[in-house]
Amino acid sequence: MDKLLFCHMAGLGLGIILDRIIGDPHGIPHPVVAIGKLISHLEKGLLGSTDKDFKRDAKREKRNGILLWFIVEIIVLTAAFLIMYTSYRISRYLGVIAEAVLTCYVLAARSLKDESMAVYMDLKGGDLSAARRSLSMIVGRDTDYLDEEEVAKAAVETVAENTSDGVVAPLLYAAAGGPVLGLFYKAVNTMDSMLGYRNDRYENFGFFAAKADDVFNFIPARISALFMILAAFLLGAFSPDYSGTGAFKIWKRDRYNHRSPNSAQTESVCAGALGLKLGGTHLYNGVSVTKPTIGDELRKAGTEDIKRANSLMLMTQALTVIFVFAVILMMTK
């Protein structure tokens, strides 16, 4: 086996393990936080005033939004490449360590589990107010009015959707191109989460960021859905709480029931696997937004569904890891 490829496999594997053990440690520099600060800084210069009376220019805003996207990606790619190139030039061992640490930062399985399970623990403790606060950390919707069922359902939706763009997609990109491509993808995803809103401020400026995210998530979202269906069948073999047949049925029917071409891919699988109805009408900054529903309400969502959604997410990640390393090993033959 080529030594560089072996080092890549070692760094990738260690990064996955690090993410599962420590997730995103607080109190130390995080490259995704740095990317977010860079985006905010460039936004102030390229978009301009937030004053409602400020004269807007749709063409200029779209052009500047594209410019921001390319500036961010060039900086991220350059910085990631220099870190990896320098590390491997000094020592293969240092290169593997650098790859493992950056891969850990790229992945979000542990943080997604921890943050959603914080909602679970609050609900289990009977503290709905605390559950709403914990939920507000991971969703964009208003949470103050949600009852226990709606809080649980929102947490399930978040885990389901982020299984693709927070777990499987960055793993696939990191496997294909190491931390360089992994951080490139994280920048794509971060720009969409910060700028890709359909409102007065970002309708034009964030247009390119939103479309780029759709493009770079198109294939990973569908791979995520297929592995999640398989995960539902595997978990269903040991527990009646999961239905592989339901997962496939609802995915086939509802996988496009979303404004995004990608978001409903894994949400529909999760809804079908657990027998829940997701989506619907919710408040975002006080504004009512109606989304298509996903799945059939075979039963009401409950607190335990948050744990079940996390089990689906982790099994989906495990299947993706097996797939990725199988492909890499096949390439060495």
Note the beta-strand portion: under 5%
Q: For the terminal residues, how far apart are their CA atoms?
A: 8 Å
**Helicity, as a percent range:** over 70%
Could you say which overall geometry the principal axes of the C-alpha atoms support? globular
Biggest sheet details: 2 strands, antiparallel
Radius of gyration: 20 Å
Number of strands: 2
Task: Return the structural class.
Answer: mainly alpha
Total domain modules: 1
Order of neighbouring strands in the sheet with most strands = 1-2
Order of helices and strands: HHHHHHHHHHEEH
Low-confidence stretches: none
Number of helices: 11
Mean pLDDT: 92
Fold and architecture overview:
The protein has helices spanning about 5-20, 30-45, 60-90, 90-105, 110-125, 130-135, 150-195, 205-235, 245-255, 265-275, 305-330; strands spanning about 280-285, 285-295. The chain is mainly α. It has one domain (about 5-330). It has a two-stranded antiparallel sheet. A hairpin with a 2-residue loop joins strand 1 and strand 2 (about 285-295). The radius of gyration is 20 Å and the shape is globular. The model has no long low-confidence stretch (mean pLDDT about 90).
Quick recap:
The chain is mostly helical. It has helices at 3-22, 31-46, 58-90, 92-106, 109-124, 128-136, 148-195, 207-236, 244-254, 263-274, 304-331; strands at residues 278-284, 287-294.
Describe this protein with a few key phrases:
333 residues; 71% helix
List the helices and strands and how they pair.
Layout: H1 3-22, H2 31-46, H3 58-90, H4 92-106, H5 109-124, H6 128-136, H7 148-195, H8 207-236, H9 244-254, H10 263-274, E1 278-284, E2 287-294, H11 304-331
Antiparallel strand pairs: 1-2
Helix pairs in contact: 1-4, 1-7, 2-3, 2-7, 3-4, 3-7, 4-7, 5-6, 5-7, 5-11, 6-7, 7-8, 7-10, 7-11, 8-9, 8-10, 8-11, 9-10
